[in-house]
Amino acid sequence: MRRSLVLGNWKMNGTRASAETLAKGIIAGLGDDVAEIGICVPYVYLPEIGQIVKNTRLALGAQNVADKPSGAYTGEISAGMLKEFACHYALVGHSERRTYYGDTDQSVAARFCQAQEQGITPVLCIGETLEQRQQEQTFDVITAQLDAVVELAGIAAFSKSVIAYEPVWAIGTGLTATDEQAQEAHQFIRNYLAAKDQAVAEKIQILYGGSAKPDNAKGLFAMPDIDGGLIGGASLDAESFLKIYHSV
Ligand code: PEP
Is the overall model pTM greater than 0.70, yes or no? Predict the structure, then answer.
């Protein structure tokens, strides 16, 4: 039986003080251990938030990781560096990275491998744009995004990873995939993996991301192949984030 997971993605928001308040607010409201929970915070807040979440159930994550282990790559942060700050998760291939910073399916696959080499769980973000959905390319896009990682890392590597299905048209737009649209994509992803390795497909947590909010989370999380959420905007408010967490 898969445990659910709710992950917050704070993106480039907040201040040192507000980050600390938010993390403490989430910890204070964790309540019953209904699922796994974590926050992906800006790099510079990792040391401080790492101290706050220490010895709690709230896991720490980064929003990206370099595709190389070390060297002359100005501005990048390696998986080894993240490991030093007790990072449990690292997002890879978030659509904002793919769209604004040129991350490709291949560089995302390399980031995925770098995270795993340091024992960090990569959260592979995949999903189609509105145009791709309208042209009925959703499954082709998802397949290509998954293929790139399978080619580099191998299917077994997925047993130590998380996938986030995030339709790009739903991220930060207020538009949410319907429960059925999301389930259809999640089922497709699980079937893709099952065709290569049934055990991996059954074990992996597949999260939904895209304007998930307290009022729509319950329906999404009730779908059989949706194992929780990657939450952007609503994770910046402790109460909203916790309501989503308690919807699993
Ligand atoms: C995200 O950035 O991963 C995300 C899902 O954002 P939002 O919830 O704001 O749509």
Answer: yes
